[in-house]
Amino acid sequence: MATQYGSIPFVDLKRQYVAICDEVHQAIQGVLDQCAFASGPAVAAFEAEFARYCGVRHCVGVNSGTSALHLALIACDVGPGDEVITVPMTFVATAWAISYVGAQPVFVDIEPDTCTIDVSQVERAITSRTRAILPVHLYGQMAHLDPLLEICERHRLALIEDAAQAHGATYYGRRAGAVGRVGCFSFYPGKNLGAYGEGGAIATNDDAIAARVRALRDHGQSGRYRHEELGFNYRMDGMRGAVLSVKLRHLECWNARRHQVAMRYRGLLGDTPLILPDEVEGRRHVWHLYVVRHEERDRLQLALAAAGVATGLHYPIPVHLQPAYAHLGYRVGEFPVAEQVAQQCLSLPIYPELIEEEQEYIVQILKQATGVS
């Protein structure tokens, strides 16, 4: 059903493209003129720009966020038989990467307010096989990292940030990706900083890790046709690097607009029975997703769909209950907060170009569906 504004999509990349199309075309033309399609100058330029933005010495571009996580774990010497502590409330790629290196994901529950890792549960999950802690900066807000850093130092573990949804988020002034040993980003098109196609990167201050990831993404080459270890074809292509450089120039403005949209939702939905997300003191939320919670989530989603409003579910099945991880032996009820969030979560449209009238219409439908006049 179309609204008076037309159907309201969950993400509207067309509006974003129209605003920056001239810059994008010029950047792509530069890649075409150079015929530098696989890696090349455009990727190198973006890597330098994103490293400066994050406040780290190195950024290494790859072909997806999943690949970034995979290579980060290898570079931190996580391998077969090891364990990595993470959360079940995330996109499954967080766990995939752990499995790719032959390690086992060990889950701990999340905090109900932030939906990020519950630090109080981490230390008792550590065993002699634990090699890393992999917190997820979910929905655009960073996890509580200082106590995790202390735990990692005490147990000699690597802290690897899954920052796939947190481009530009900060934790007491430090940007996502710059706090742990390695930060991993996704540039999937719908992200706050999204490529035209897949893309990812690792950020780090560790020279050795950066050098190893650069080799691993390019077939494990330390020099032309010299392969030091098993490598991968995980390179970022020139077109994506060029587009990401254009978009990076707009990221701070876009994040500020997302914040405005989020605060408007909070004001408009404050008198509803919805559980609303919030921004924790000391952490800058970049609102990749605006996720509300309600016991009758499915009914609300159907009401919005009937009114022409697209929504999302992030994520309806926690990773520990996914069929692919049944072999780990986790059962319903082991991570009650993550399971409750999975049953109640509903992601509303949020992007810089969402206009106030559209947002007010979305809120009107939600109020009607929740019995608020």
Portion in beta strands: 5-15%
What is the CATH level 1 assignment of the largest domain?
Alpha Beta
Order of secondary-structure elements: HHEHEHEEHEEEEEHEEHHEEHHEH
Main sheet? Answer: 7 strands, mixed
Mean pLDDT: 97
Q: How many E-type strands?
A: 14
Which secondary-structure class do the elements indicate? alpha/beta
Spell out the CATH superfamily of the largest domain: Type I PLP-dependent aspartate aminotransferase-like (Major domain)
Unreliable stretches covering 5 or more consecutive residues: none
Q: Specify Rg, calculated over alpha carbons.
A: 21 Å
**CATH topology of the largest domain, anyone?**
Aspartate Aminotransferase, domain 2
Task: Give the number of helices.
Answer: 11
Percentage of residues assigned to helices: 25-40%
Q: Per the principal axes of the C-alpha atoms, what is the gross shape? A: globular
Major sheet: arrangement of strands: 1-9-8-5-4-2-3
Task: Based on the coordinates given, report the CATH architecture of the largest domain.
Answer: 3-Layer(aba) Sandwich
